[in-house]
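Summary of Year 1 activities. Much of the first year was spent building the evaluation harness for sequence design. The harness presents a backbone, in tokenized form, and records the residue chosen at every position. We chose the following record to illustrate the format because it has been used consistently in internal testing since the harness was completed.
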């Protein structure tokens, strides 16, 4: 059965690379962390090219923060729209308990000032 795609944290990647540079074998790391040896080789190459530096981690954090800000801005916009709808009287709210209500027709109609011709 094929494995599903997993996402590994930057801390785990750095830890595995550090263990490899300390002398651990690819086979041992693969067994202990349940990670493919080829993936560990890729992480080692990326670490050697500088992709695991703090600047890259900061850029990833920035992307996550920007996504969170965008979702919060959408929520604020939706709430502002709902609030303006309520302020304009679009929301009827509960009817007074003294008004007669018919199950079929709803609240009683108010009489008109002029007669209908």
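For this record, the design step produced the sequence shown next.
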């Amino acid at each position: 059965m094929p494995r599903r795609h997993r996402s590994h944290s930057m801390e785990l990647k750095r830890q595995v690379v550090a263990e490899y540079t300390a002398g651990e074998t690819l086979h041992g790391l693969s067994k202990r962390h349940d990670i493919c040896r080829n993936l560990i080789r890729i992480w080692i190459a990326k670490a050697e090219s500088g992709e695991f530096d703090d600047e890259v981690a900061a850029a990833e954090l920035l992307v996550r923060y920007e996504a969170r800000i965008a979702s919060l801005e959408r929520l604020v916009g939706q709430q502002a729209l709902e609030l303006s709808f309520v302020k304009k009287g679009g929301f009827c709210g509960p009817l007074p308990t003294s008004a007669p209500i018919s199950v079929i027709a709803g609240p009683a109609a108010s009489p008109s000032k002029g007669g209908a011709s």
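The CA atoms of residues 30 and 37 lie 6 Å apart. Quantitative recovery figures across the full test set are reported in Table 2.
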